[in-house]
User: What shape does this take?
Amino acid sequence: MTRVRTIVRGLSRALAAVAAVALIILMLITVADVIRRAITDKSIEGAIEIAPLLLLGAVALGLGYAEQTLTHVRTSIVTSRIARAPRLIVRALGGTVCTALLLWISWESLTRAITAIDEKDVTPGFVAIQTWPARILVPVGFLLFALHVAFRVYDDVQALRKGEPDPRDAELARLNDDAVEVRA
Assistant: This one.
C-alpha cells in the first residue's frame, strides 16, 4: 500500500507542476493577446480557442495534489467538534461516497474523452484545435483525486480499528511543518 501511495503522491506532484506550467502559459498567451489587440486591434490566432483547453488541463491535473495537501474544501468545522470514533466513522462513510462519485466522474469523463478522439472533436472558432488532449486529462485528475480520498478512508478505518489517534491530525501537523520550512 505504501508503494502505491508513493507512486500516486509523486504522480500528483508531477502533474501539479505541469498544471502550474499550463497556467503560466495561459497567462502569457492572455497577456500577449491583450497587448497585440491594444497595438494592432487583432487577436493572436488560436488564443481564444486554446485558453479553455489549458485551463481545463490545469484544473484537472491539480485535483490530486490539492487533495494530497488537504487544500480541497472540507467539513472539518463539523467533524472537528465530535469525538474521535464518530468523527472517523463519519469521515470514512463520506469518503467512501466521495470516492465512488469521483470514480464515476472519472469513468464518464474518460468515455467523453474517447468520444472526442473518435469524432475528432475540435474547438469552435477560427482555429480548430483538437480537444482530446485536454479532455483526457480530466479522468486522470479525477482518478488521482479518488485515490487520495480512498487512502484517507483507509487511514480512518485503520485508526478506528486499532484505536489510534486521528490520522488527519498528524498529517495536518506534517503539512504545516512543510509549509514552515518552505517559508524559512
In short: The chain has one domain: 2-183. The CA atoms of residues 94 and 153 lie 9 Å apart. The chain has a mean pLDDT of 89. Helices lie at 2-40, 47-68, 76-79, 84-118, 132-162, 167-183.
